[in-house]
Amino acid sequence: MKAEAVYDELRSRFPEKVSETQGQGPLKCVLVKTDAIEEILTALRNELGFRHLSFIAGTDLKDAIELAYGLIAYSQKAMILLKVRLDHANPTVRTVTHIFSGANWHERETYDLLGVKFEGHPDLRRLLLPDDWKGHPLRKDYKEEPSYHGMPTTRDPLLGRT
After folding, report:
1. pLDDT tens track for 146-160
2. CA 69 – CA 7 distance, rounded (Å)
3. The Cα angle at residue 88 between residues 56 and 33, in degrees rounded to 5
4. Backbone dihedral angles phi then psi of residue 25, each to the nearest 5 degrees
5. Where in the sequence is the domain holding 37, given as residue range(s)?
């Protein structure tokens, strides 16, 4: 089943939970309602052959946080993207670690860098930064502290240029 057929299948199975398709070419994406991500990922894995969650990537759009889930069906040589939009002030979505165990680290990284809370995650804590780090560095409203435990977080401009 090619990606376009998968998108059509999702739109017909979940008409109230799947909206527009974005992008051009072979790798388009479908916007999914936040509360439907578990159900749709389960159907993709169990019924449509998408057995591998390749990544979860997050983007701060200023008014929302957008997550992209990349899935691969190796047997069909197909890849699809699903996106969900989260409230910028309180970005929260259900974990999918019980569907794809590899989501564990992807979700922790997204929590660490963007502050997305994955409800039900078995071990949601920072992955890349220290536990006492303030803020989430990939947020547009992130303000970097001048130092961390006495170590500067910035360096002098290269060759004295500002």
Report:
1. 899 999 888 777 765
2. 14
3. 60
4. 80, -160
5. 3-160
E strand or H helix at 65, and its extent? strand 64-73
φ and ψ at 57, to 5 degrees? Answer: -125, 140
For tokens 């259900």, name the residue: 94
Contact 75, 129 (CB under 8 A): no
Domain count, the chain: 1
Higher pLDDT pick, 14 / 22: 14
Q: Spell out the residues 6+ positions from residue 79 whose beta carbon is closer than 8 angstroms to its own.
A: 3, 27, 54, 70, 71, 72, 73
| pTM for this model (two decimals) | 0.90
Reading the block at residue 139, the tokens are 């947020």
Q: Is the CB of residue 96 less than 8 Å from the CB of residue 41?
A: yes
- CATH number reported for the structural domain that contains residue 154 in this entry: 3.30.460.80
Integer-rounded Cα Rg, in Å, for the chain is: 18
| pLDDT tens figures, 75-93 | 888 889 999 999 999 999 9
In degrees and rounded to multiples of 5, residue 130 shows phi and psi of: -60, 155
DSSP letter at 99 equals: T
Q: Is the predicted pLDDT of residue 162 greater than 60, yes or no?
A: no
Which residues on adjacent β-strands are paired with residue 53?
Answer: 71
